[in-house]
Structures
1.
Amino acid sequence: MTRNKKDVASKEILNTREAAGLLKVTTQTIKNYIYSGKLNAIKTPGGHHRIKRSDLKTLGFVTEEEKNPESLSMDEMFQMYNSLVGTLITTVESLIKALDTRDIVSSGHSSRVAEVSCAVGKAIGFSEKKIQELKLGALLHDVGKVGISEVILGKPGRLTDQEFFLVKKHSEIGEKIVAEVEYLRPVASCVRHHHERFDGRGYPDGIGGSDIELNSRIISIADTYDFLRSDLSFRKAFSINDSLQEIKNSSGTQFDPEVVKSFLNTVQGNLFQLH
Ligand SMILES: [Fe+2]
């Protein structure tokens, strides 16, 4: 009984004939490779050669899937995409954790902002792809602080006008950093606008309402909530209830009222456990 092509394609251990078929050479050529040491092989008790499929790569063999990524099924491509995005998010998370320690807000700020933002995104009905984009934007929202002096970021006490002017540059610096990386570019403008206000009195562009992209409007609330919940050198952290009240008080001025509603529904409906 002969094995069909598909069986050979999935076999890990091959005989010389199967290896020859995959490499499109003669069995004698395979034997020559073995005898010359170019190809590893083991011998069966009967004296036949057996070759590990992965060893064929040393001779430049690539699978059909490797040659033609477009021949992957939609499911496989989706899984591959998800795994790449997952790796990207994990990488960004660990880099940002290091950066967070430079700030007065308690460390882990960006991860917490990402968690809250994603919970709100889910409540709004975002697709998995939109959630991933929101998560990246939230993780990276303060990445521009890498360009701000640690002396200012960690200053115990309130900032002078000049210092505050410099700190405010972080959203533009962040946009530039993120825009440099192809895979992160879609979240660059969201990073730029995370300090805009719904009433147009934010920075850096002073845009308002729906001119501010939805992801930035969500991150803005999660960011402020986490800031209020942090112990600072010049004040204690607000309680959960007081922090929520502050968010409500700024609905329609600093924050988009619809997003405030979604945020409150998310946390009060126990869809997300606030810290
Ligand atoms: Fe910020």
2.
Amino acid sequence: MNVTIHGTIMSPWVRRLLACCEEKGVSYDIVNVVPLGEPDPEFLKISPLGKVPVMEVNGKFLPDSLAGCAYIESEVADPPLFPNDSWELGWMYWLCDFLGTGVFSKVEAPLFINKFVNPILLQTDVDEAAIAQAIEEMPRHFDYLEEQLGGGKEFLLGDVISLADLTAGSIFVNFRHAGETVDPNQWPSLSAYVERMHTRPSFARLIEREKKAVGAVSPMFAG
Ligand SMILES: N[C@@H](CCC(=O)N[C@@H](CS)C(=O)NCC(=O)O)C(=O)O
């Protein structure tokens, strides 16, 4: 199976879909689309919301990473990333939503935009109030993840990896691009978990590609 992924490798949602391909051994090509400014009308034809990623498969286009991951799961069963157990499956969707609506939107996106994209890539204004607000939001979001990982869990659902882990792993790459790290004294389980996720072969390959693309420009790779 081969898919084409339209988007930028720096997007957490593109990266989540790439991580799904990497984990399942699905080969992929990347068409670089950076969703800044007014979307190209041609792109809106395959992505009505103007967002990345779009997954192209057999001449058809799926404009959402969750939809793309669900499609891949259904085509390539091993290793499973969506649990069979009904409760676990529901809980996994909840965790994905918490990570996207909470951790990403409230904490990591404002930091990524205002500590990396705007000052470093675009050299435009930084919203200091947005940074302060994100720092304020961080503890309650990270406390929740720390609690979820309690009792020595390897992954968010326990012993087995799921899409929730790819979502978290991906979002925390952006956190690192913003020059941030999870404080191991305050959140020891979360800090170790992020390290474990980022050293998995799937994420290690994705991070290496990003390093080649942006190099020391990203605070994640500087120094
Ligand atoms: N639910 C979508 C979210 C995708 C998303 O928000 N992508 C951002 C990049 S990180 C984007 O394309 N933003 C451009 C825009 O909103 O115009 C998914 O998982 O694919």
